[in-house]
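Propose amino acids for all 332 sites.
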C-alpha cells in the first residue's frame, strides 16, 4: 500500500503533500491513535478502479465490521437522473453487511417527497431488487441533540433511524447546487434528516416548514455550518458504529437530487473510505483540485461559488473530524 500524508492548507488552493512528522492532527485531544487514525492523522483509503469488488475491499480496509442491524445510507436518486450509485456497483457490499438501504423523504416537490413515491423511485432505480429499502421518516421523526452548534440545538431525523445498530454511509461524491459539493457530511446531515428536518438545516434552525424554507434562506455560511452541525449529531449518536465510503464518479456539478443533472465534465477519481467524514470529504475535494483533467474547472467553480469547503472547516471546528489526513492507496 502506498501512503501519502496530506493536509489542506488554504481553502480552494492546490493540495499540499507533506512529511508525516510535519502535520499535526486537529483531533489531538482524542489521542494520537484514535479510531481511524495513525500518528495523529485520520486515515483515508483509496482505490482508483471503481468496481463492486473494490467497494468491498475498501470497506474491509477500514477494519470496522458492520454488525447488527445495518443501515446503508445512500441516495436513491431523483427520477429522471442517472448519476446515482448503481445497484450493480453496490450490491455486493450491501449484501455482505446484510444491510437495509435507508433514506428520508425530500423537502422539495418531486418524485421522492412522499413515501409511496420514494419507494417507487427506489424500485424503478433497482434498489429494492438488491435489498430492503426503508424510508425512515415514513412514520415521523425524532430529535438528536447537537453538541456545540452555533445554529442548531437539535437535528430531526427519521423516526426509524434508532432501530439500526450500525450505519454504512455510502455516498456519491459530486457537486451540489446549494452546498457546492456533496459527500459523506451531506449524506448524514441532509440525507438522514426527515423532510422537515431538511428544512430545519436549510434554514439554519429557523423553520421546519418546507414551504417557508425556500423563500427565506439564511446566509450561505449559516446553511453550511448547519449541515456540519446536523452531521455531528448523527456521528455522536452512532459513536464507533459508523463508517464512511465515497464513490467519486459521474462528477457532475449537480446532485443526485436533481432530476436533470448536468453531464460530468471530468473523469472519475475512485473509491475512498475513512472513519472520519471530514477527512474523507476533504480528500475528495483535494483530489479534484489535484486532477490533471481540465474539465475539473466546472466542479471547482461550483464548489468555490458556494463556499463549499466551509462545511468542512466548521465540521473540524466543532469536532466532527479533521481536515488533515493520510491518504493510503490500495491499488496493486
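Proposal:
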Amino acid at each position: 500500500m502506498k501512503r501519502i500524508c496530506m493536509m489542506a492548507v488554504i481553502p480552494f488552493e492546490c493540495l499540499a503533500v507533506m512529511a508525516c512528522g510535519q502535520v499535526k492532527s486537529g483531533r489531538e485531544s482524542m489521542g494520537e491513535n484514535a479510531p481511524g487514525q495513525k500518528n495523529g492523522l485520520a486515515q483515508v483509503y483509496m482505490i482508483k478502479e471503481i468496481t463492486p469488488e473494490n467497494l468491498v475491499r475498501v470497506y474491509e480496509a477500514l477494519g470496522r465490521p458492520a454488525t447488527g442491524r445495518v443501515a446503508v445510507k445512500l441516495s436513491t436518486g431523483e427520477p429522471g437522473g442517472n448519476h446515482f450509485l448503481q445497484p450493480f456497483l453496490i450490491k455486493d457490499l450491501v449484501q455482505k453487511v446484510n444491510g437495509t438501504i435507508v433514506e428520508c423523504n425530500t423537502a422539495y416537490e418531486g418524485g421522492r417527497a412522499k413515501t409511496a413515491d420514494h419507494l417507487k423511485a427506489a424500485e424503478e432505480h433497482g434498489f429494492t431488487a438488491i435489498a430492503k429499502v426503508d424510508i425512515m421518516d415514513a412514520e415521523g421523526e425524532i430529535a438528536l441533540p447537537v453538541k456545540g452548534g452555533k445554529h442548531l440545538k437539535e437535528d430531526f431525523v427519521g423516526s426509524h433511524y434508532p432501530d439500526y445498530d450500525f450505519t454504512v454511509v455510502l455516498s456519491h461524491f459530486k457537486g451540489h447546487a446549494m452546498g457546492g459539493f456533496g459527500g459523506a457530511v451531506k449524506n448524514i446531515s441532509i440525507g438522514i434528516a426527515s423532510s422537515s428536518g431538511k428544512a430545519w438545516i436549510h434554514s439554519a434552525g429557523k423553520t421546519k416548514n418546507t414551504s417557508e424554507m425556500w423563500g427565506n434562506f439564511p446566509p450561505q455560511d449559516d446553511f453550511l455550518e448547519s449541515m456540519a452541525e446536523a452531521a455531528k449529531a448523527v456521528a455522536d449518536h452512532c459513536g464507533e458504529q459508523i463508517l464512511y465510503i465515497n464513490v467519486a464518479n459521474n462528477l457532475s456539478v449537480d446532485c443526485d437530487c436533481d432530476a436533470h443533472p448536468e453531464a460530468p465534465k471530468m473523469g472519475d477519481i475512485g473509491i475512498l473510505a475513512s472513519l472520519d467524514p471530514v477527512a474523507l470529504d476533504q480528500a475528495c475535494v483535494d483530489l479534484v483540485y489535484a486532477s490533471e483533467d481540465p474539465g475539473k474547472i466546472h466542479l471547482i467553480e461550483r464548489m468555490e461559488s458556494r463556499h463549499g469547503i466551509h462545511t468542512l472547516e466548521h465540521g473540524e471546528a466543532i469536532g466532527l473530524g479533521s481536515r488533515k489526513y493520510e491518504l493510503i492507496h490500495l491499488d496493486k
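The longest strand covers residues 41-47. The chain has ten helices and 15 strands.
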